[in-house]
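Need tokens for this chain, all 420 residues.
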Amino acid sequence: MTTDTTLADTSKTLPELSASVTRHAARLAVLGGGAAAFAVAVATFGARPAEAGGPPPAVSVIVAKKTPYYRHYSYTGRIRSLAIVNIEARVTGYLEKREFQEGGTVKKGQILFVIEQGPYEAALDKAEANVQQAKAKLENAKLALARAERLLHTPAGQQSTVDNDRATEESDAAAVAAARAQRETAAINYGYTMIRSPITGRIGPNLSSPGNVVGPGSGTMATIVSQDPMEVIFPVPVRDLQTLRDDLKDKGGLRALKLSITLPDGKRDKQTGHITYVSNQVSESTDTIAVHGHIPNPVIPALGAPRSNDRQLTSGEFVTVHLRVKKPTERIVVPRDAVLSDQLGNYVLTVNGKNKVARHNVTLASSSQSQAVIASGVKAGMKIIVNGIEKVHPGITVKAKTVQNQATASAQSGHSGQSG
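Here are the structure tokens for all 420 residues:
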């Protein structure tokens, strides 16, 4: 292997030297020196003209300042109704009426279907008659028993007669109870001829038309879903869940998180909800655990007058779920492009009082495409370079211009879409 002597050739001009070094670094990268060596060489020699007498490179800096930061996470979730009810017939008969509008809202207890009632009404009347007949026999048995007990202390009375009459009275009392039970069954079956909604919600299409015979084996006649509130289910990596629990153990646990969603069209829903519970099993294939939350789904204005079925969320749709702590912490937040990385880790470049560039290794609390939240490595008051980074390196003198920190607003609102 031969060694390139370009660096020792002092007869070349600085631009030529810089170009030679760039080629040399690229060759080293190919041979195993790595992309980091190439980048360092290019950045270092690309800025030499400023040190050789030209004006110092111009950079933009922000003044590090602790601001309220709402730690937040984003996940993909699915909306689901809290109650999904399939309506089925409980008794057999011809379907006579349908008492709802498909796609409309129904109230709990509202009649949805009516099955022919004649046979079941007749069965109820017969059961009522059987109750009255059994009661009459019981009254007669009570009289016979009382008579036998009065005669027991006379020459005409016998103990066996008393015993027989008592047994008859008890038997007739049981017959009355059985007749009443049959009447109750007949009344229940008669009530089943009027199929009512068990919940308040939105009903789907009608699957059984009047005139057809329906019964317990006919299947679903219609489906009702509840609408407010809605449940949102989203998988959370176990690592994230453990971090959240550690961070919030003294702040009320997961109840301290505010839940909001972004709709499929990218719009942020105005409603906020909360976590209700965490599943008791971890998915072995994804190492995630299902988290459940509730979020309001109120009526929204429709064209003309509001209708009760005009709501933002629909059961089954995908949404982006955002979790944000309700109380912020004080953190230094910078634009994500201001944080660089190499083999030594994450770092930022700062400008000191003498306009010299310095490197500071940092630890990130979290990051997104637009911002980075610094946990350690930078103190308030430091000037961090955000623009012109590619023109400088540690130790060089620069001309710094202070600009506004654009990452601060999104940190305070908690809407940067950070995940994990």
